[in-house]
Amino acid sequence: MSIFSRFKTLKKTSVKEWDREHLKPVVLSSICTGEKTAGFEDEAGHFHAVMLVRGPEDLKAFAGEYGIDPDSIQIRY
User: Fold this and answer.
1) Beta strands per DSSP E along 1-77
2) Looking at the DSSP assignment, which residues form a beta bridge with residue 27?
3) How far is residue 40's CA from residue 13's CA, in Å, rounded to a whole number?
4) Is the pLDDT score of 62 beyond 90?
5) Rounded to an integer, what is the distance from CA 38 to the centroid of its chain?
6) Nearest-CA neighbor of 24 among 37, 9, 38, 5?
7) Where are the domains of the chain?
């Protein structure tokens, strides 16, 4: 068994903390290329990217990692 196969079986049990008062979860989607990036937007409208979203699995992973309901994530174009 290689060392890398062992890391694949480890699961994260803790939810990452984020400022729920001042940040909201957002997915930015390019109207040209369709590329999607998940992250957080602050009150001033600045976007803080967290991860690239390639499909529904990545969006679910982002929501699970930060304890967010996937239906509450806004999509911006």
Assistant:
1) 23-29, 36-42, 47-53, 74-76
2) 38, 75
3) 21
4) yes
5) 4
6) 38
7) 18-76
Name the region of 75 (left: φ>0; alpha: ψ -120 to 50; beta: rest). Answer: beta
pTM exceeding 0.85: no
Q: Which of 43, 5, 52, 49 is nearest to 24 (CA)?
A: 43
Give residue 62's Cα distance to chain centre: 3
**55 DSSP 8-state letter:** S
Sequence-ordered list of residues with C-beta below 8 angstroms from that of 62, at least 6 positions apart, any chain = 25, 38, 50, 51, 53, 68, 73
What does the alpha-carbon distance between residue 38 and residue 26 come to, in Å, rounded to a whole number? Answer: 6
What is the total residue count of the chain? Answer: 77
Mean pLDDT along residues 17-33:
95
Matching residue, tokens 């994530």: 73
- Name the amino acid, one letter, at 76: R
